[in-house]
Fold:
Amino acid sequence: MTRIAVAAPLLLALAACGQDPNTASDAPAAPAKPARVLSDAEKAGLLASLPAPYNAGDLDNGRRAFARCRSCHTIGEGGPDMAGPNLYGVFGRKAGDRPRYNYSNAMRTATFTWDAEKLDHWLQNPRTFLPGNKMTFPGLPDATDRRDVIAFLKVETGYTPETEAPTPPAS
Structure:
Protein backbone atom coordinates (compact mmCIF):
# COMPACT_ATOMS: atom_id res chain seq x y z
CA MET A 1 0.00 0.00 0.00
CA THR A 2 1.34 3.44 -0.87
CA ARG A 3 1.81 6.22 1.64
CA ILE A 4 -0.98 8.22 -0.06
CA ALA A 5 -3.43 5.36 0.36
CA VAL A 6 -2.58 5.15 4.06
CA ALA A 7 -2.66 8.91 4.61
CA ALA A 8 -5.95 9.61 2.79
CA PRO A 9 -8.29 8.01 5.39
CA LEU A 10 -6.34 9.69 8.18
CA LEU A 11 -6.68 13.11 6.53
CA LEU A 12 -10.42 12.58 6.00
CA ALA A 13 -10.87 11.62 9.64
CA LEU A 14 -8.95 14.70 10.77
CA ALA A 15 -10.97 16.93 8.46
CA ALA A 16 -14.19 15.76 10.10
CA CYS A 17 -12.79 16.09 13.61
CA GLY A 18 -15.13 18.03 15.85
CA GLN A 19 -18.08 17.84 13.46
CA ASP A 20 -21.34 16.35 14.66
CA PRO A 21 -22.10 13.61 12.12
CA ASN A 22 -25.82 14.34 12.52
CA THR A 23 -25.37 17.95 11.40
CA ALA A 24 -22.44 17.65 9.02
CA SER A 25 -23.16 18.99 5.56
CA ASP A 26 -21.45 19.06 2.21
CA ALA A 27 -22.37 22.75 1.91
CA PRO A 28 -19.49 25.15 2.57
CA ALA A 29 -19.59 27.01 5.86
CA ALA A 30 -20.94 30.54 5.70
CA PRO A 31 -18.13 33.10 5.80
CA ALA A 32 -17.74 35.00 9.05
CA LYS A 33 -19.64 38.26 9.04
CA PRO A 34 -17.15 41.13 8.83
CA ALA A 35 -17.19 43.60 11.68
CA ARG A 36 -19.17 46.76 10.96
CA VAL A 37 -16.89 49.73 10.49
CA LEU A 38 -18.27 53.09 11.56
CA SER A 39 -18.22 55.89 9.03
CA ASP A 40 -16.35 59.09 9.85
CA ALA A 41 -19.71 60.81 10.42
CA GLU A 42 -20.80 58.07 12.85
CA LYS A 43 -17.49 58.34 14.71
CA ALA A 44 -17.87 62.12 14.94
CA GLY A 45 -21.44 61.70 16.26
CA LEU A 46 -20.35 59.18 18.87
CA LEU A 47 -17.43 61.39 19.89
CA ALA A 48 -19.78 64.37 20.31
CA SER A 49 -22.08 62.25 22.52
CA LEU A 50 -19.31 61.39 24.98
CA PRO A 51 -19.17 63.19 28.31
CA ALA A 52 -16.60 65.94 28.78
CA PRO A 53 -13.64 65.94 28.42
CA TYR A 54 -13.76 62.96 26.02
CA ASN A 55 -16.15 64.69 23.62
CA ALA A 56 -13.28 67.09 22.86
CA GLY A 57 -10.87 64.23 22.16
CA ASP A 58 -8.78 64.05 19.01
CA LEU A 59 -9.45 60.60 17.49
CA ASP A 60 -6.41 60.79 15.20
CA ASN A 61 -4.12 61.52 18.15
CA GLY A 62 -5.86 58.78 20.14
CA ARG A 63 -5.23 56.29 17.31
CA ARG A 64 -1.56 57.35 17.14
CA ALA A 65 -1.11 57.14 20.92
CA PHE A 66 -2.87 53.76 20.99
CA ALA A 67 -0.34 52.46 18.45
CA ARG A 68 1.95 51.84 21.46
CA CYS A 69 -0.69 49.46 22.81
CA ARG A 70 -1.31 47.46 19.61
CA SER A 71 1.60 45.12 20.17
CA CYS A 72 -0.35 43.67 23.13
CA HIS A 73 -4.03 44.56 22.56
CA THR A 74 -6.60 44.22 19.79
CA ILE A 75 -9.78 46.30 19.82
CA GLY A 76 -12.09 44.77 17.21
CA GLU A 77 -15.16 42.73 18.08
CA GLY A 78 -14.13 39.09 18.26
CA GLY A 79 -10.45 40.04 18.08
CA PRO A 80 -7.89 37.76 19.67
CA ASP A 81 -6.29 38.18 23.04
CA MET A 82 -2.57 38.71 22.79
CA ALA A 83 -0.14 39.52 25.61
CA GLY A 84 -3.03 41.71 26.81
CA PRO A 85 -6.77 41.06 26.44
CA ASN A 86 -8.87 42.26 23.52
CA LEU A 87 -10.40 45.59 24.57
CA TYR A 88 -13.68 45.43 22.64
CA GLY A 89 -16.48 46.12 25.12
CA VAL A 90 -14.06 47.08 27.90
CA PHE A 91 -16.16 50.01 29.19
CA GLY A 92 -18.62 48.67 31.74
CA ARG A 93 -16.79 45.34 32.06
CA LYS A 94 -15.55 44.19 35.46
CA ALA A 95 -11.76 44.25 35.66
CA GLY A 96 -10.20 40.85 35.05
CA ASP A 97 -13.41 39.44 33.62
CA ARG A 98 -12.69 38.73 29.95
CA PRO A 99 -13.40 35.03 29.42
CA ARG A 100 -10.44 32.79 28.61
CA TYR A 101 -7.82 35.49 29.22
CA ASN A 102 -5.12 34.61 31.77
CA TYR A 103 -5.10 37.64 34.05
CA SER A 104 -2.69 38.26 36.91
CA ASN A 105 -4.06 37.51 40.35
CA ALA A 106 -4.13 41.26 41.08
CA MET A 107 -6.40 41.90 38.07
CA ARG A 108 -8.51 38.77 38.57
CA THR A 109 -9.32 39.80 42.14
CA ALA A 110 -9.82 43.53 41.41
CA THR A 111 -13.23 44.83 42.42
CA PHE A 112 -13.82 47.68 39.98
CA THR A 113 -15.51 48.08 36.61
CA TRP A 114 -13.72 49.80 33.74
CA ASP A 115 -14.89 53.33 33.06
CA ALA A 116 -13.11 56.37 31.63
CA GLU A 117 -11.86 57.56 35.04
CA LYS A 118 -10.39 54.16 35.97
CA LEU A 119 -8.82 53.77 32.54
CA ASP A 120 -7.30 57.26 32.78
CA HIS A 121 -5.61 56.37 36.09
CA TRP A 122 -4.56 52.97 34.71
CA LEU A 123 -3.02 54.49 31.59
CA GLN A 124 -1.15 57.09 33.64
CA ASN A 125 0.78 54.40 35.50
CA PRO A 126 -0.46 50.77 35.45
CA ARG A 127 2.06 49.66 38.10
CA THR A 128 0.93 52.09 40.78
CA PHE A 129 -2.76 51.90 39.88
CA LEU A 130 -2.90 48.15 40.51
CA PRO A 131 0.29 46.75 42.04
CA GLY A 132 0.99 43.15 41.03
CA ASN A 133 -0.58 43.34 37.57
CA LYS A 134 1.45 41.88 34.70
CA MET A 135 1.23 44.79 32.26
CA THR A 136 4.73 46.00 31.40
CA PHE A 137 3.63 49.25 29.73
CA PRO A 138 5.10 52.23 31.62
CA GLY A 139 2.07 54.46 31.07
CA LEU A 140 1.05 57.60 29.21
CA PRO A 141 2.17 60.59 31.26
CA ASP A 142 0.48 63.18 29.00
CA ALA A 143 -3.13 63.87 30.06
CA THR A 144 -4.14 64.91 26.53
CA ASP A 145 -2.86 61.62 25.09
CA ARG A 146 -4.81 59.70 27.74
CA ARG A 147 -7.98 61.67 27.01
CA ASP A 148 -7.58 61.02 23.28
CA VAL A 149 -6.86 57.29 23.74
CA ILE A 150 -9.96 56.94 25.92
CA ALA A 151 -12.09 58.81 23.36
CA PHE A 152 -10.61 56.63 20.59
CA LEU A 153 -11.36 53.44 22.55
CA LYS A 154 -14.90 54.54 23.31
CA VAL A 155 -15.51 55.13 19.60
CA GLU A 156 -13.74 51.95 18.41
CA THR A 157 -14.69 49.32 21.00
CA GLY A 158 -18.47 49.14 20.87
CA TYR A 159 -19.19 51.69 23.59
CA THR A 160 -22.74 52.99 23.63
CA PRO A 161 -23.42 56.13 25.61
CA GLU A 162 -25.95 55.74 28.36
CA THR A 163 -29.20 57.40 27.52
CA GLU A 164 -31.17 59.16 30.17
CA ALA A 165 -34.36 57.46 31.21
CA PRO A 166 -37.36 59.22 29.68
CA THR A 167 -39.16 61.55 32.03
CA PRO A 168 -42.68 60.27 32.67
CA PRO A 169 -45.40 62.60 31.38
CA ALA A 170 -47.05 64.86 33.95
CA SER A 171 -50.49 63.65 34.95
